């Protein structure tokens, strides 16, 4: 039976655990027992030792106890054999556990449940479900402990999908949901619907399978809900339907449920997704202080995140400073929050402070630091971050290297970007796209197209964004023939339908070359209605080349789609001014005042004394 579920994958998926010591008296007893030829008849002592070794995952001592039992009078004890089996399973030694299971002279529901639980605990749900099916076929009475593990296994479909990518996620989800319903049928048939632990696991599995509506029905039918039940639904709403979080929180409070740290983390996550940090968010903040959960780091992190995602940077910083304990997630949240609030310099300050306090940075810290350097176009700070990336060695992934490429590109240092790109073992489509855009933005349009040709030669499939960057390079370099070639190849060779961004690039390319009429005809032939961006691009080209007639058409179309966008008014006004049509300029400014349209001010920065 064990061979049917594969030796090799079990060895790959399970690892040995480090030795851990037990309490001193028990440690002394266990040492004397396993290091001598002494054999005791004290079954309770063996049970106590095996339980402790299972808890601490001390496989080596547990195996020594097993050896003693083989020689002793308790060799055939099903009770002790189940404890040994449980010790192997919880220690992650699933091969030993299954071999022992196969050679047991007799088995009961505890034997099966221990082995199934071991596979579930070590993220091998498919094997756990095979064992559950075999247990049914063997005619063994299934109990609630077995069902908890089987239901939990059905919620771990994503662990099976790690090596297969996102394409099979829907298949795995559907398969495990069907198994979930089958296991739940046993729950109903055996009359265990009253068991809140089973109902909580079932709801969690439904939520993980994106069946939130069904989970809510189960929740409403459950008569003996506990805090875990409420937390499970709150977590599901925060993830898949955050708009329902405030109402569910009010219901929870009205029914007299005392929220714990998980409940507060869940509601704060939902409010963060809603960006509600000043309304209900502050009320929840007050409640958690009242309930005494304000000092817990997980709750503090959720609270800081809520304020930052609501744009309340000052409140986020204040909450951060009041936290009694912080971890790397806390610092990462603050840095990312400052970045999202348009304060990249402040983000770097938090990262530097984090390093001074001795908190070890991770790949998320580094990605945030590199993005902040890119936003500031600070090559000096970017090179420092690059040094930190080298120190982290294998603790980073391709996302960090992509951020590094983007930083060098935005700082104008394409030689450094190319050097980093050359050291990447497996550049992703994002890596290639970043290099193409970097060269295009830094005046090396031909090099950008060379990178694209290399990408295709490496059999890396370009995506929607890649073609925007390629067409942008053609537009910047005035490469019209190449632009048309790449534009035509999108659907023919790659199955990518051109979107508004691609048409805007083509209009910009033709407009820069003075082919205004050709650009206008392209817009008219678009398979969908052109958006504001396309018409504004044509308007900009008309202003440069003095084509007032086509410019008026483009402006009219743009304003009909969005009359509040100041860009259209500004470009049209400049076109009138270029043609000395001061009456048109005056009328346009009056219209802007009437509609309360204000021009967005430009901004720039310089660095003085490293500030």
Task: Explain this structure.
By secondary structure, the protein is mainly alpha-helical. It has 35 helices and no strands. It has helices at residues 7-13, 24-34, 43-55, 59-71, 78-90, 94-102, 109-121, 125-137, 144-154, 157-160, 169-189, 196-208, 212-221, 227-240, 245-254, 261-274, 280-291, 297-309, 313-322, 328-340, 344-356, 363-376, 379-392, 398-410, 414-423, 429-441, 445-457, 464-477, 480-494, 500-512, 516-524, 532-545, 548-561, 566-578, 582-594. The protein is elongated and about 105 Å long. The N and C termini lie far apart (68 Å). Mean pLDDT is 87; it is low at 1-24.
Helical content band: over 70%
Oligomer: single chain
Strand segment count = 0
**Alpha-carbon distance between the termini?**
68 Å
